[in-house]
């Protein structure tokens, strides 16, 4: 029976055989809770973004390896497979359920990509090569260094890791103009289970398709993505408008859901619904926050024509550069020096839970009123409403594994944060979020009720067992994340990793009973 000590000793011995340059006595890339405990704890905790997974009862990896070279990743994969020990890959640590660094398996190894964060931007070809340990803020800064009129369509949190964000889909305030992050990936480098490094040409189009939205960690360790950066205007406009009167909020939401997905695709208006106490009374505040790729004069014309009910004025609008819009959306001073984007620890870490939904049919005014009443009743969980439409209506559902394109009015993120370190409160807040999610059933997508992979949610299903049982349990959450694309993902998984070495509680399962993995891509499920 393995122990952490025997795993460490066997792993080190294997590393020296596979990669002799790694000297365990001088190496600063291998950490063990018994050999270098203080450093191990510091590395583990440094990229935990959800304090629910920092408790003494949270399962911990037997080993952490922090590669500084691609060959270190190869060696780690080869040795973990030789030992038969699960390996998890972490880039930014923002997985909402901690699946990039927590496992239900007794022993596991954590591969932390933090040191592999090189970014090369080429403005002449409008491309960037980004190692997956980089964070979004670093990517935005490196683009800004080269051009004030280029950007990349990805998330609003600068400390999110590129690896998980892109491999799970990725989106931001330019989604209606440019689609998802994965829609702009043109090449990649990945370490597969036998330790080989493959690029797009050598991995083939099926695997390349799968790691652009199907979750790269199901298929290997993605080392880098090559992406196309996109043009942005010199002048962008942002605004925040807040409403607290319940009747007004319901009316605005009813109108917003019809215009936000159909207005000019340069405009993205998110709504944040958050319960809070105003003048001693619990209410729900609606904050309309926008990014417009253009100046305020053009924005006001669009708003006055399509959404005059919001009452947007010139005074509400702030004209900024694209990189300043990044700071604005990250709730930072938009005049902050761009170098702040290189701060890899600039966010506050709370206890949290997230869930997701898609809305495909307009919600009635009565429905919105009932939702506001439920938020007020529960008193803590908020909703982030993100409009779709624009180019998302034009990209085929099977262009990448991310199928949630045409026909979706908006996406919902359920958001619950708390700061108190109290297990009883944890249970209460988790329960409240699940109650709200259940309440929303009648308003959201059905058959299946869809979810967004980047908002990892173990409540919608986990893989149980292997073989037929593992496949059937994987299909439960797989259909919600990927709809019909799930079938193709399973074929790719079975072909490239038939032993299911790269696995988590919500990874892509393999087909049961397949004898010839090489032929599975040409089979039918």
TrEMBL record:
Source organism = Mikania micrantha (bitter vine)
By what name is this protein known? FAD-binding PCMH-type domain-containing protein
Family under the similarity heading:
Belongs to the oxygen-dependent FAD-linked oxidoreductase family.
This protein's record includes keyword DNA-binding: no
PANTHER family in UniProt: OS08G0158400 PROTEIN
Q: What is the lineage of its organism?
A: Eukaryota, Viridiplantae, Streptophyta, Embryophyta, Tracheophyta
The alphabetical list of record keywords is:
Disulfide bond, FAD, Flavoprotein, Glycoprotein, Signal
Q: Which SUPFAM superfamilies match?
A: FAD-binding/transporter-associated domain-like (SSF56176)
- Domain FAD-binding PCMH-type as annotated: residue spans: 57-232
């Amino acid at each position: 029976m393995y122990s952490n000590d025997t795993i460490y000793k066997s792993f080190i011995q294997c590393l020296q055989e596979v990669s002799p340059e790694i000297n365990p006595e001088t190496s600063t890339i291998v950490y063990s809770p018994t050999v270098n405990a203080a450093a191990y704890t510091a590395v583990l905790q440094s990229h935990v973004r959800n304090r629910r997974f920092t408790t003494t009862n949270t399962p911990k990896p037997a080993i952490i390896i922090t590669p500084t070279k691609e060959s270190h990743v190869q060696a780690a994969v080869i040795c973990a497979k030789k030992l038969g020990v699960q390996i998890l890959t972490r880039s930014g640590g923002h997985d909402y359920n901690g699946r990039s660094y927590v496992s239900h398996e007794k022993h596991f190894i954590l591969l932390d990509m933090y040191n592999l964060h090189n970014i090369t931007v080429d403005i002449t070809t409008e491309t960037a090569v980004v190692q997956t340990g980089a964070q979004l803020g670093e990517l935005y800064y490196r683009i800004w260094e080269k051009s004030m009129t280029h950007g990349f369509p990805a998330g609003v949190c600068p400390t999110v890791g590129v690896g998980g964000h892109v491999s799970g889909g990725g989106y931001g305030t330019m989604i209606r103009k440019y689609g998802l992050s994965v829609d702009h990936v043109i090449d990649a480098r990945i370490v597969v289970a036998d330790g080989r490094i493959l690029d797009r040409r050598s991995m083939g189009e099926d695997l390349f398709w799968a790691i652009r939205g199907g979750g790269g960690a199901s298929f290997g360790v993605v080392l880098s993505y090559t992406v196309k950066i996109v043009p942005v205007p010199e002048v962008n406009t942002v605004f925040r408008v807040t409403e607290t009167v319940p009747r007004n909020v319901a009316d605005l939401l009813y109108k917003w859901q019809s215009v936000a997905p159909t207005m000019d695709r340069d405009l993205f208006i998110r709504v944040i619904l958050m319960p809070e106490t105003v003048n001693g009374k619990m209410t729900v505040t609606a904050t309309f926050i926008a990014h417009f790729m253009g100046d305020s004069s053009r924005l006001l014309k669009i708003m006055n024509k399509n959404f005059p009910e919001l009452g947007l004025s010139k005074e509400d609008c702030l004209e900024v550069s694209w990189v300043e819009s990044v700071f604005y959306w990250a709730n930072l001073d938009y005049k902050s020096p761009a170098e702040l984007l290189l701060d890899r620890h600039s966010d506050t870490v709370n206890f949290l839970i997230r869930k997701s939904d898609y809305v495909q049919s307009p919600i009635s005014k009565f429905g919105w009123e009932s939702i506001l009443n439920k938020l007020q009743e529960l008193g803590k969980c908020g909703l982030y409403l993100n409009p779709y439409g624009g180019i998302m209506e034009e990209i085929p559902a099977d262009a990448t594994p991310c199928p949630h394109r045409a026909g979706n009015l908006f996406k919902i993120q359920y958001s619950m944060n708390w700061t108190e370190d109290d297990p009883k409160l944890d249970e209460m807040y988790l329960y409240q979020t699940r109650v709200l999610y259940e309440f929303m059933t009648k308003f959201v997508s059905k058959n299946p009720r869809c979810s967004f992979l980047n908002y990892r949610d173990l409540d919608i299903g986990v893989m149980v067992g292997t073989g037929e049982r593992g496949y059937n349990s994987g299909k439960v959450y797989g259909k919600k994340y990927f709809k019909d694309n799930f079938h193709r993902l399973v074929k790719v998984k079975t072909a490239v990793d038939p032993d299911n070495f790269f696995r988590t509680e919500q990874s892509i399962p393999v087909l049961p009973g397949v004898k010839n993995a090489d032929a599975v891509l040409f089979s039918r499920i």
